[in-house]
Amino acid sequence: LTERDRRAVKFRQGQxxxxxxxxxxxLGDPGENVFVVSQIRRPSRLRHALHELHREGVSATIVDAxxxxxxxGQDELDKLGIKVLPGYLGxxxxxxxxxxxxxxxxxxxxxxxxxxxKNQISAALILEDDFDFQEDFARRLGEYLEEAxxxxxxxxxxxxxxxxxxxxRISEHVVEPGYxxxxxxxxxxxxxxxxxxxxxxxxxxxxxxxxxxxAAGRGMDMAYNDKVxxx
Length: 231
What we know:
Elements: E1 6-9, E2 34-38, H1 43-56, E3 60-64, H2 74-79, H3 100-119, E4 123-128, H4 137-147, E5 155-162, E6 168-169, E7 175-176, E8 180-189, H5 190-198, H6 208-215
Helix pairs in contact: 3-5
């Protein structure tokens, strides 16, 4: 993730912090590290994202997404060391081959994880440019991070589509999720980003939302995804 691939937008005066607690960073507060993945060829979605950020007073870094449609063949991915899961044909609830859009999505998020590890960023909020903030998003996020105090987590979804019941309830607004789809918004801690890089996730591509759920040990009942043991 180079400087030419990202640009900052400032909508909050002063240092950005979501939690009021003195140990906000230890709670997973992303602070200034908010990244919005946006396709250059979809300016309407960037305008939407900027509107949402401005409305809620959230500063962010806009990251140019990897355009999966720019790849002309598997050989170009091979040169980058990128490989799809062997024999990937989807699963019973997603019976399609991995799309170029899904490849671009995964690579876009991967580039941010790599940036986090390289720069030792303790936590980051990663958003895709079709997100919609709830009213008072910044305040709510800070409160929910404080609610999760003491819970061991590396990824916290701020937007998701569950496909199975939650494992447990941590607090009034925080749960331990079951198999979850949609990566429109999540906070990832440095330890989580490092783990994904250490596992060489670029060598076993699958749709990102499926990948994160399986990496977290979800879906072992195979109710939604019958290929979990193989992946």
